[in-house]
Amino acid sequence: xxxxxxxxxxxxxxxxxxxxxxxxxxxxxxxxxxxxxxxxxxxxxxxxxxxxxxxxxxxxxxxxxxxxxxxxxxxxxxxxxxxxxxxxxxxxxxxxxxxxxxxxxxxxxxxxxxxxxxxxxxxxxxxxxxxxxxxxxxxxxxxxxxxxxxxxxxxxxxxxxxxxxxxxxxxxxxxxxxxxxxxxxxxxxxxxxxxxxxxxxxxxxxxxxxxxxxxxxxxxxxxxxxxxxxxxxxxxxxxxxxxxxxxxxxxxxxxxxxxxxxxxxxxxxxxxxxxxxxxxxxxxx
Length: 285
Description:
Layout: H1 6-13, E1 26-32, E2 37-46, E3 51-60, H2 63-76, H3 81-85, H4 89-95, H5 104-122, E4 133-135, E5 140-141, H6 142-152, H7 157-164, H8 174-190, H9 208-228, E6 232-240, E7 243-250, H10 251-254, H11 258-273, E8 279-282
Parallel strand pairs: 7-8
Antiparallel strand pairs: 1-2, 2-3, 4-5, 6-7
Helix pairs in contact: 1-2, 2-5, 4-5, 5-7, 6-7, 6-8, 9-11
């Protein structure tokens, strides 16, 4: 018997927002019945403000899958699409007071459904769509494993299985999962602080080169793909101390919400992945 929190039990027994929204603007379907977990998330969006008016779900899965889906819909209603996309699988688990380690993949499924629904609304492919599949049994891509491992600081193949199911079938992909984890560990060691963190600082003191590498990686792997979803792009221009200078391109360059995108999404992601001291300045060409 899994040790579920009272909040997980409550969202399982009395799930919120079950069904399909009245007007489907975004439709995200992830997982499969063959894999044991399937989730459909539909969104109704205020197109003028890019704000989620309603979110509802249909799921085939265990108590954790139902509770995670219910929690996700409660968390994202009223948020802009960019704000909703910043919700992580750990945020979903925390909202529920925690999930058993072996059930964390249910929170990941919810986050993936949200990304799929937003991509569907924006008419763009998911970033992971072109990533090679590592786990054939559950259809888990290399990018999905890298992202979940990085965000949740996973260090073992068993952790990856708990969070993504990858490696939980035939097991033939275990060696490839280990290679991915080793590659992420190498990246982390390159960016590891060489001195003790400053009091009251962000927890890590970076050299300029370490900071630059992390900023470039965050833009390349997280920020640019998200902006490309909406026909935009971003270019790193310069780094001056903790100020990151960027140029917005494509649809983002003329978007009236560009200042909010820089302040909320770009700055937030860089502070999450690099340093809490980061500021972002737009440089127009």
